[in-house]
Amino acid sequence: MGRSTKLRDLIGAIKDKASLSKAALLSKPNTLSLHLSLLRATTHEPSIPPHDKHIAALLSFGNSSRATASAVIEALMDRLQNTHDASVAIKCLIAVHHIIRRGSFILQDQLSIYPSTGGRNYLKLSGFRDSSDPITWELSTWVRWYSCYLEHVLSTSRVLGFFLCSSLSTVNKDEEVEQVSALTNQQLIREIASLVDVIEETYKAPDSLHVHGDRLLSEVMNLVGDDYLSAINEVSLRINEFGERLRALSFGESVELMCALKRLENCKERSSIQPHRKKASMETFWGLVSEMKDRVGKECREDARMVMIGRRDRACESARLGERVLKSSDSVRFGSGRLVSNGFAFSILESVES
């Protein structure tokens, strides 16, 4: 295993030098520095995450024109979709993740509309396979999961109207509460359900035997862990808002909210991703989820009971009405010239007070 790893490292280093040389020869002068920065941030070197200075250099191109930002996203996506190396693919996805977290507004905007013809990010790499050796085979599983996870983050960000965990979307607590309070019940439920999608996806991270302690994957899980905390905070804010308007929910809205809360509570026992440094906060959060689920469940049961009572009362009223009207001794039969169909005359029974 060690010998094959050294060989793979050597081949990767050769590929990186060849890529840099090719970029220097073929790139246009105005995009050369961009392509060199991208190649340095997404090397073939396994088990080592991109250096922060290389990520920062790549992100800096988002501070100029929209055309340059578009070129960054296009080059990054081309590299991601054309590589067959698992380490390169994961580093490309890490770069995408950093754009979501730290990128400028125009860089994030170009990511959100890529490709320009379709308006949907092309990160789904369900068919990715690097069969060079057992380790890259397992890393391929991480590529497939990580790309799917980032798709969920981008989809949820569209629902929220801002990038989850982005430094650009931070507002003070009072403003955030005010923004959430202005949402309709359906908007709040949709946002909670979408945030739960992200939380659920974090628990689908592969559990690979040969990659424990891998620095590259540790970087991935650190980024995902920060997203997890952001998603938890956003859900908490919306659950607290529902606590203020619970009595105003319709029966259907209560059921939808209950479904989202049950999905969320099912995540509680999956502790692999939960950050231990926030243990007290997490216990508070799960207590909030459990309490709200109980309150919503009580409202659902009460609403269902009222519906059943209403149906029973209508049935009883209908029976009483039938008894009052249909007794021949209490009614008078007469023909109505207005209700004639196919030559048959209908009779109308009119109640007569005794």
Features:
single chain; 354 residues; mainly alpha; two-stranded antiparallel ribbon; globular; disordered C terminus
Can you tell me about this structure?
The protein has 354 residues and is mainly α. Helix content is 66%, strand content 5%. It has a two-stranded antiparallel sheet. Strand 1 (331-341) and strand 2 form a beta hairpin. Helix 2 (32-41) packs antiparallel against helix 3 (52-60), helix 9 (185-202) packs antiparallel against helix 10 and helix 11 (251-265) packs antiparallel against helix 12. The protein is globular and about 75 Å long. The termini are far apart. The model is unreliable at 326-354 (pLDDT under 50).
Q: Specify the number of helices.
A: 12
Through-space gap between termini = 101 Å
Task: Flag low-confidence runs.
Answer: 326-354
Helicity, as a percent range: 55-70%
Order of helices and strands: HHHHHHHHHHHHEE
Structural class of the helices, strands and pairings?
A: mainly alpha
Principal-axes shape call: globular
Strand order of the biggest β-sheet: 1-2
This entry's quaternary arrangement is single chain
Strand content: 5-15%
Question: C-alpha Rg, in Å?
Answer: 30 Å
Q: For the residues shown, what is the average pLDDT? A: 80
Number of strands: 2
The main pleated sheet reads as: 2 strands, antiparallel
